[in-house]
Amino acid sequence: MAKTTKKPTSTRVVSNARKSAPGGRRSQQTTFIIVASVIAVAVIIGGIIAINRASNDKAKTAAANDAKSVAELKAGVKKIAAAIPADFPKSTVTPDAIVIGNEAAPVTVDMWIDMQCPACKQYEAQAEDTLQKDVMAGDVILHVHPTAILNRMSSTNYSSRAGNAVVCGAQQGKFTAFQNALFAYQPEENSAGLTDKKLIQIGVAAGLDEASLTTCVNKSEQASWIDNSTKAFAKNGYNSTPTVLVNGKQMQQGTLDELTAAIAAAKAAK
């Protein structure tokens, strides 16, 4: 009897077709994986682009803000410098003081200061007009002694750095403008203080030569001068700034009235 060939059932046909046809399950899974991978890569690339774009935007904003801040700083310092009379005597630097005024003046006012000292800033503000008038009249010669007794009040030895900078400025004859500007922008105590870059920006805006000031500040060329001044301050028995003397007599009250009366008395005694 001849064998009868059985036809595959419909279920087996479908199963075989799924295993062998080009468009079967395995092919579909492969296609899905490829598509998913492409999408994932696109998402990652898009994320990177977005992050870079955000970072660039932040950098541009920061740069714009910094430029605005520098412009405002320069304008403020120039205004401070412009308030000093054009014929106000230039400063000179001796081994122990910054000197401003006529050597023949009958009255010598010694001022021991620290650029980090808030009380120095306040005293300078109240005494500035009186001292400028007396110096220009030839009645007073100023001996200013920047020191660094408050380095502990900053994390970067700001007193030493700012003291060095202001002596650098005094060598160029423009101590008063630089000092006034540094006091105006005096940093908070227990902070990092102004950076060297900021000190230079303030000095240049006050009228100092940028190249000379930059070298002097970056190389701390007057660091030993400040160290010696600080040692002299202690040797003299002083313990706080500002310490002000009129013809060798130390002021005790820290007021403008006291200073004015002392200068008048010293002039009368000559």
Automatic annotation (TrEMBL):
One short Pfam family name for this protein? Thioredoxin_4
Membrane-spanning residues where?
A: 32-51
What SUPFAM superfamilies would the database entry show?
Thioredoxin-like
Whether Isomerase counts among this entry's keywords is yes
Thioredoxin-like fold domain boundaries: 95-263
What family does the database annotate? Answer: Belongs to the thioredoxin family. DsbA subfamily.
> What's this protein's name?
Protein-disulfide isomerase
UniProt source species: Antricoccus suffuscus
